[in-house]
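Hi V.,

You were right to ask for the full record rather than a summary. Here it is.
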Amino acid sequence: MVVISVLPALKFPRGFRLFVVQSESMKPTIKAKDLVVIRPQFEYQTGDIITFLNPTLNEEKYPTTTHRLQMIINQNGKVFYMTKGDANRLSDGEFVSQDKVVGKVVGVIPLLGWLINIVKSPFGITFFIFLPAIVIIRNEAVNIIRLTKKELI
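Predicted structure:
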């Protein structure tokens, strides 16, 4: 469980990264709590699903957004993207500069993000880390008491 919870924090070879999708904005293609596999690309095409650092979510717990690339513009040698969630009626309010793009979605693992979120929650930490630790400590204490009693007899 601990390994699963740290998956999104790891950087894999070739730049692969994992992100848990938190909203339904890409439904039905990608649902909330799906885990997306991201890989940086040299360039992106209209229709690609990309994950980017969202400047409007700068202070949020989840500062990235995963949306479909709708339009590409080149302005003074800089590339910008207009994106939109498949389930959203309107495009996102701002263009995303190319340097804010983390990568293209190259895979989706349904519902694994749900498990990751549970393991990282206060309940998950208690259930998967503290509770087993308490059981192990209790069992070891019982074993020590039994061994001590046997030696006294």
